[in-house]
Write a structure and sequence with these properties.
The complex is a heterodimer of chains A (164) and B (295).
Chain A: E1 2-10, H1 16-25, E2 38-47, E3 50-59, E4 78-84, H2 88-105, E5 111-116, H3 127-135, E6 140-142, H4 151-162
Chain B: H1 3-13, E1 16-23, E2 26-30, H2 35-40, H3 52-67, E3 73-81, E4 90-98, E5 101-109, H4 111-138, H5 148-165, E6 170-176, H6 179-186, H7 188-203, E7 211-214, E8 219-224, H8 228-244, E9 257-263, H9 270-286, E10 292-294
Parallel strand pairs in B: 9-10
Antiparallel strand pairs in B: 1-2, 1-5, 3-4, 4-5, 6-8, 6-9, 7-8
Helix pairs in contact in B: 6-7
């Protein structure tokens, strides 16, 4: 079994814990519970007939992205930067986190931007923003921890990239 | 009293595990570990091997021990929760260096954790409520676009930028042709559904630095930081997209828009630019609708 450390980062209340809960336990709760510190979960998966344990570090959301504890990234083989579709500033934060993280652990470390709460009625992140992300070559998934949309696909995609 | 003797007595009273560093990266468990520790790490010979965070912390502690050989120092990790432990408590690890002795303690936090979590939770919930109120006050609920109030604030800033920095600014007023007929024929809920789709079509045609808003019942504003020739291209693109769009609700309905375009000129303020775009819109309506005109 190969251990692969994956960090999940983003502003507060973007749905980091819900994404992990959805992926690891296939559950979703509407109630919002702040994460304090780091929550560590594991999920065993098969990638190209190789068994790997994804060790998911769900990190406390920060109002100020510059305050995220980047030392926790040490040893990460991949990471997710998460934003909330209903709050444009969380996309800005996720992009900054992504930039800082790649500076710290290298651009070759696979990473995916997750735009969560895809099911929300009002969105501040528009098609125009998505077009700009595409133009920038940033890999992203539109996810919903609530409905489960694209959650599994995003984690599998990151796992695939980590095994390359 | 040495740190180990001190800790042994403390361990007896609190939920604490002490790991004595016997060699770089090698630790012995001191005393009787508390129940939480036995639950988490049944194999006490190498407890840290089962914990991703503790393993990580031990690497951090090694760096600390390498760089600090003397003095009384404590570093602490953040809190963490291992897979499977109750959400009611967390663990915290400290690396301690005292009188040349090196150790790591792992503590279980219950009351402090709950208190910290409650404080954070309340602060964030309050922020989210403020945010929700702001959203409801800023957006049009039907189209999910900015409402008139938000548009005017953003447009005022855009006009100021054009005045100060002499940057281009164009304004499009997009009016649905004969929208009242749609509402009267199919009912207001169906009209709202059509508006919602229309908002999505327009959103997909603009860039993130554009300001798109529902300004009135059947009227939309789009401010673009581009000269008029580029704004006209965007206007024609939007008009064509809407003209070709197959609405899901009301089914098979055809909707067209007329568009008035105007560019910021020296001496303009918000109102004069809006007035000129409205005049261009009137020109478009007089020319038979489903067309754009500029002034």
């Amino acid at each position: 079994m190969i251990n692969k450390k994956v960090c999940i980062m983003g502003a507060f209340s973007v749905g980091k814990t819900s994404l992990v809960e959805r992926y690891v336990h296939s559950i979703f709760s509407d109630s919002y519970l702040s994460t304090v510190g780091v929550k560590i979960s594991k999920k065993d998966i098969m990638v190209n007939n190789i068994e790997i344990a994804m060790v998911l570090w769900d990190m406390e959301g920060k109002d100020d992205f510059s305050d995220i504890n980047m030392t926790y990234l040490r040893g990460a083989m991949g990471f997710f930067a998460v934003a909330d579709f209903t709050r444009k500033e969380t996309l800005d934060a996720a992009l900054q986190i992504r930039k800082r993280a790649t500076e710290l652990i290298g651009k070759s470390v696979p990473n995916i931007l997750l735009l969560n709460k895809e099911d929300a009625a009002i969105r501040e992140i528009t098609d125009a923003h998505l077009a700009e992300l595409t133009d920038s070559g940033i890999q992203f998934f539109l996810t919903s921890a609530k409905t489960g949309k694209n959650v599994e696909s995003a984690f599998i995609s990151l796992a695939d990239q980590m095994m390359l | 009293m040495s740190i180990l003797n001190l800790m042994k007595s403390v361990i007896a009273e609190f939920d604490i595990t002490l790991l004595e560093r016997v060699a770089p990266g090698k630790y012995n468990v001191v005393g009787t570990p508390p129940k939480f520790y036995k639950d988490l790490y049944p194999d006490l010979n190498a407890p840290w091997k089962t914990s991703s965070f503790l393993e990580f912390f031990m690497e951090t502690a090694e760096l600390f021990f390498k760089t600090h050989s003397e003095g009384d120092d404590i570093i602490s990790s953040g809190l963490w929760q291992e897979d499977g432990i109750s959400s009611e408590y967390a663990l915290i690890a400290y690396a301690i260096l005292k009188n040349g002795e090196r150790a790591i303690i792992v503590r279980q936090l219950k009351e402090e954790f709950a208190e910290r979590k409650n404080i954070l939770q309340k602060a964030r919930e309050s922020l989210l409520i403020q945010r929700q109120l702001h959203m409801e006050a800023s957006y049009d609920i039907v189209t999910k676009l900015y409402n008139k109030k938000t548009f005017l604030l953003a447009f005022s800033e855009a006009v100021k930028n054009a005045q100060i920095w002499v940057t281009p600014l164009s304004l499009l007023i997009i009016n649905i042709d004969d929208f009242r007929i749609i509402n009267n024929t199919y009912g207001i809920p169906a009209g709202d559904a059509a508006l919602s789709e229309l908002g999505a079509v327009m959103s997909s045609s603009v860039r993130s630095d554009n300001i798109l808003a529902r300004y009135g019942e059947d009227e939309f504003m789009l401010a673009i930081p581009k000269p008029i020739d580029q704004a006209v291209e965007i206007a024609e693109n939007i008009r064509e997209k809407i003209d070709a769009h197959k609405f899901r609700q009301p089914e098979h309905i055809h909707i067209s828009v007329s568009i008035g375009c105007a560019a910021y000129k020296k001496g303009d303020d918000e109102q004069s630019l809006i007035d000129r775009a409205h005049q261009a819109l009137d020109d478009a309506k007089k020319c038979g609708k489903n067309i754009f005109r500029k002034r």
